[in-house]
Design goal:
By secondary structure, the protein is an alpha+beta fold. It is about 35% helix and about 15% strand. It is built from six helices and five strands. A three-stranded mixed β-sheet has the order 1-2-3. Helix 5 crosses helix 6 (about 130-145).
């Protein structure tokens, strides 16, 4: 009698965050100002910046939307450090985490982007919900396609 578990039948099984993560070219130090972050976001045309602490470890992620409340009075933006703003903070994902689990966690937390860090907290890249969903969907289609 041949038995197999449903574990081997699940789409996306074996895919990890490392398979889906993307590099993040834009980062900012946590002691940088809101004004500096806004300049980078607009100049680079990106929606988010990874925030790193004084040791270079990931401190969080700041978005245009998250900075919006701090941008009204210009004198305030010139003096407010990113670390003082409300932005996405850890825990972050690891490259060895299962992609399906990471996608579920992102849905529950309502995250579009999730920083990927190593065991010491240094930034490796980002996982986007679109990329995770795309890879998992592709895996689902590949496993359900009829054999030629």
């Amino acid at each position: 009698m041949t038995t197999y578990s449903q574990e081997t039948e699940r789409p996306g099984r074996g895919l990890t965050v490392a398979d889906a993560m993307e590099p993040c070219e834009y980062q900012i130090a946590d002691d940088s100002t809101v004004d500096q972050a806004d300049d980078i976001l607009h100049g680079a045309g990106v929606e988010y910046l990874l925030v790193r602490d004084h040791d270079g470890r990931c401190e969080g992620l700041v978005t245009r939307t998250g900075l919006h409340p701090f941008l009204a009075p210009s004198w305030y933006t010139e003096r407010t450090a990113i670390s003082a703003t409300a932005h996405q903070r850890g825990p972050f994902t690891w490259p060895t985490m299962g992609l399906a689990l990471a996608a579920i966690a992102m849905r529950i937390k309502h995250l579009a982007v999730w920083p990927v860090v190593d065991e010491d907290g240094y930034i490796l890249g980002v996982l986007t919900a679109d990329r995770a969903t795309g890879l998992l969907t592709t895996g689902l289609l590949a496993t359900s396609a009829p054999a030629p």
